[in-house]
Amino acid sequence: MINAWKVLGVLVAVVAFNTLEDLGTLAGAIGTFPVVQLVLGIAGGVVLILGIAFAYSWLAWRRMRYAIGADAVYFHHGILFRTQRHARLNRIQGVDIVRPLLGRLVGLSALNIETAGGGQSNIRIQYLKDEEAERVRAEVLARAAGLRAMAVPGGTEFARAPERVMYTLQVRDQLLSLALSPLSFFAVLGLVALIPLTIFADSFWSLFAILPAGLAFAAALFGRFDNEFNFTLAISPDGLRLRHGLLATRAQTIPPGRVQAVQLTQGLLWRLKGWWRVEVNVAGYGASSGDDVKMPRTVLVPVASREEALMALWLVLPDLGADDPDAVVNAALVGQLDDAGFLHSPPTARWVDPVKWRRNGLFITRTALLIRNGRLTRRLSVVPHERTQSLAIQQGPWERRLGLADFRADSVPGPVSTRTYHLPADVAQRLLFEQADRARAARAKEGPEEWMRRVGVAAPAPEAPEPGE
To answer: Domain range for residue 396?
Structure first.
């Protein structure tokens, strides 16, 4: 039913867009038809489209099958073209429950199982009853952790892990943060620039020239407000839990050890309130599938004080691996040059980076790589050594002439920038080999993928039922 209404909405939008230019001609043609025949014709077309869409959606729902095994989730779907997928439990990066607006009205949810491959390798089960979606998510996460099912009357069941709320975004702070965002700043700047031009044009109708841009900015601002509304971060034994959304809602669960990199960002106007934004790279979240709900999946904390942002960082990386973590973090967030021992760009870098060369810096601890940059927008990126995907150094022609090089510690696709700009070339070359050794040693010490086995409380989960429900 939900997919059928989506089809109808898309068709109405396409027809409206294609007939917009010929609206006057179309209105004249419609005026020649009797009212009764016109109404019956429109109603018949809507009923026909809905009937076809409902029939196809019902058949697609009947063909959908899924099962949860001891080491994988299996999913079959399709009518004309049938697809079979399986996601190994030790490759699962997150399990999300998405409730679109229509789904919330009828109590249905989509279950997204995100894998390291991302995109088309993810599993999207549409649609389950809300209670069934919660049960399936609990079972997938429990099996991925290596937990046993509990014996209950009539069979077995996986317990739903408790949670502790660590952060909730207040509406007041969200609205003020949007007002202080770069998007609002450029919207106001554009409006101030266009109004005098409109006045000098000496035409009232020229005001309509600014409407498309104004609507685009308003839509972008409302989209961000809608997506991040009531944003909540909680911790539980099965990982980090994120919930957010006004019209459509998303409940994410990121299992322990799945975050590949963390980034703290502070815009220029946000310094007035001391706010930071925390984002993460998670394998599979960087490339969203075409049918996914357009909601932020890589935001850990959208608007937070410095203390709340650092709390989110500690949830991902409890041990920064520094002898004086407070001094290192302060130098990373607001420092410059060699504060707290950061490696930094030399003075010659001002020729290729005159604005922010003093902020470019890198610090290596026992557990992670800290990358600092940005003058107007401050950024701190943290990459655990064991999550480093690859390493590289890059030089442009001017950098070679000045003896500079960029050092890059690649992560999975995502919003986190992991590039340190304009280091001395010999320092970047040395770091390339040293960091490769650190990453190799850290990966060798990493625990098993079934995270509950790391503390010795897990046992193998029972076999899954046959596909059918």
So the answer is: 261-446
